Amino acid sequence: MNIIKRIIIGAGIAAGLSLASCDLTTESQSTFDETQVFSDPTLAEYQIYSISQCFGETNCHRGRYLPWYGYNTDIEWYISNTKGEDKSAIVRYSLISTNSQLNLANGPYNELFSGIERANLSIDGIRKYGNPETRPEMASLLGEALVLRAVLYTELLKAYGEVPARFAPVTPETIYLNKSDRDVIYKQLLADLEEAIGYIDYYSPSSTDRVGKAFAQGMYARVALMASGYAQRPDNGQVGTGNMGSIRRSLDPELSKNALYPKALAYLKDCITNSGLRLESDYEKLWKDVNNMDLTAGKEIMWVIPFSNSRGRWNYTFAIRNNGQTDWSPTTSNRGGQAGPVPYVYYWYDKDDTRRDVSCVNYEWENRGDGTLPYPAGMENWYFGKYRFEWMTTAPYGGGNDDGVKPVYMRYADILLMAAEIANSSGEGEEGNNAGTLTRDEAFAKECLQTVLARAYGSESRAEEVLKGISGEEALFEQVKKQRALEFVGEFLRKADLIRWNCLKSNIDKAAEELTAMRNRGTGTITNANYTSTSEYLWYRHTTVDGIPAIEMYGNHIGDEGATETSCPASGSGWQPYTNSEGEASKYFDEKIFTSDESKNIQNKNTTEGFYDSDPNLKQYWPIPQTTITNSQGSLKNDYGY
Known about the structure:
- The chain is mostly helical.
- Helix content is 39%, strand content 8%.
- It has 21 helices and 13 strands.
- A three-stranded antiparallel beta sheet has the order 12-11-13, with no helix packed on it.
- β7 and β8 form a beta hairpin.
- The protein is globular and about 75 Å long.
- The chain starts with a helix and ends in an 11-residue tail after the last helix.
């Protein structure tokens, strides 16, 4: 066995040993070879653990991929609007291959391939020495390795587009590879997932940081939707030549909707019928459990990024902003609030949709001399309420940069909405003809949508009312797209969705138009919200919920008319006006919000200037970092005009 393989296997065993609760009486790890490792279920399982290690590396998902992938979109954006920063360049579609945040030898591109190499060694070793055909425990580990490799490759495809196809351990002959057409990778991932589904149980017996059959079925559907959808692709046969490409679907008939949707839908239906998974009845409790790291398998959460309890910077990056507060969080430093929902999203929800106040929050924590309390954050600063330090009541978080919150990668709601989308489709016909060869099942699509909406509204009858009168493929598809936005805001699925639907730029442009209507208190075109029935001025008062300080606001809701600079028509006492830094009553809906300020190098955020610097349709993917290009001995070249 070559030295590279020995090191990687040794690292896998060491990682596994650190998780073990008992002593092993086997040989020293330095004497293990692949024959021993992959014929022993315990040692092979430790090697499986090592595949996931890449997620927690400092410059992979922990500190570079998750903090930067997935926005700006029509529902999620980077809150800072300072021009010219390397950080803002990533989200504003103006990334270059030498960007200081991602041009790293140990950045996400290389770390994900490190995880893929560990997966390849595990898959190859178990096939050779584990006898998975006759040993169910080894077949299960093989299935887990196949699924994890599919996840790692999906993350690469989402961020970088075309990448090299590596489905076997590295040899001297394969150290340097050019990129492959992504269709080659898609077909291998689909085959891998199909194989894995036959090996593993519906969910891990204990925790959602281990993969199960239901998750593999969901991954098959997610990959099928990506593979059959639109994307910026190099011209046929021009991958890895520097080709700019165009937005198109695959030319491979094996990756058409007609070919992939029937099997994907069958897997989703099996998951719905037989997995035992369910929606958490209370949307707020779902996210309180996430913040408290209660991720017991067999409920709604299907798989999470498997950070340890002392690793990962999820709430550090995305929680409701904490300005040095200490009363309701262990941290004494500023935390959270790097990104948030695009402000209009709050108004896209119906007022009785329980997801609204969980998902979109317009306050931040601060101590202004009377204890740490929530204060209005201003119209430009909406935060993801799914992530809250004050909800980490039992989580083992001590206040450092790494909070241990495990980002949700897939949950049962996604199974239902993917099933609705696929069941609603009639497939692909000739260019310009929507008719395909699939048997469209509108009733089942509506049934899946209704399940999601019944939880959102807490009422089956209310869900029926929302869907009443919606029929036909196009109208139902629009409802699927809307519900994916409202259900998953802050979970960063949207960018990949918009790309495969071929509406990335157009939807972002519509969002900018909506912000203009909102700040001018007009009528929204996305939300149909009548912003004229809000007030220019905002008033607020403090209260408590479950013993934790909370805030009520008046003037920023549809129907909150009548609030002025000096009076608030809301009933009750304790109302205070929203003020500026000088303590003067300040307008909340104002034509001056989102505007640019050249003296402060600030972008205008009520126009497309606030979302992107380059055409998003031409910069759908990140460039492979220059350090990797340089070290590839001429084998790699960036496409897409980089």
